[in-house]
Amino acid sequence: MNNSSIKNSISILLILTGSMINISAYAENFLIISNTEHKYHQAIAKNIEGSLKQSGDTSDNINAIEFNDIDTSSYSSLITIGYKAASTVISSNSNKPVLSLLIPKLAINRLLQENINKEYRYLYSAIYIDQPIYRQAQLIHKLSDSFKTVGIIYGKNSYSRKKNISKILKNHKLHPHNITVLDRTELISETRYISENSDVLLAIPDNTIFNRRSIKGILLTTYRNQIPVIGYSKAYVKAGALAAVFSTAENISKQAIEILQKNKTFNYISATRTHPEYFDVAINNNVARSLNIHTIDRDYLLQLLHNSEPEDKLSSENNNQRQKK
Q: What is the pTM of this model?
């Protein structure tokens, strides 16, 4: 082999070796913590795992109850799905970048305030389970022009949002009719009262008010008063709510991957705590017919909602901060 061939071979070897080093340097290992028995959680985890694998990354998926027995030193970032997983990880003070999915805005803020010093909060990102109120206000408008007064029941986990939610609804020409229930024994009577004085009831994430034990009674009470309920999940629509704007597993996992890839590409940790960007909508046509409400086609409604999204979503409700690693 002549000198020219040897030099060419060495150059090719260096290029290949450099490429391998570069790929290795950017490959990361993620730990996903969730309720592994929850189908919605697992759909999100599976989507994220698939996208990470395509990018050359690796990941493991564990149940939240296993987390305290896991050595996280080999993982570059942690991804939590649901409140229990977020609470377990944040209270552990792992000092790893964390992206929490499907958690109420108030809950993640409270967990950070109680467990994480301010100088380390830049490590914690989140996609809230809450849809932005402006989006729900638009849904109410698109469903019926007759919906003017919006009843909202607040509990101990949500009453601090009352002022902000009322302001946003008023900005969208809707009149909020608020009530706070701290004693669950009063929930049905207060639901009856608010449904007698509202055009529509807007459900917001607060498990002290809306949970498996209470939802049937709330829906039955509002139905008897011929008042529709706007839910925040597809399950609520199936249970008897008129409609809901919500994010699917594909919606959440798509946004999660975008956040992870952005941090990886630009080599910084961005404390992006935000509402879902991607969303879907569901309508219960049987409920609509029973309440004599004329509804529009679901696909057309979704298109209208997309068209009504503000150009600058971050200035509406999102709390996004960017800090370099």
A: 0.83
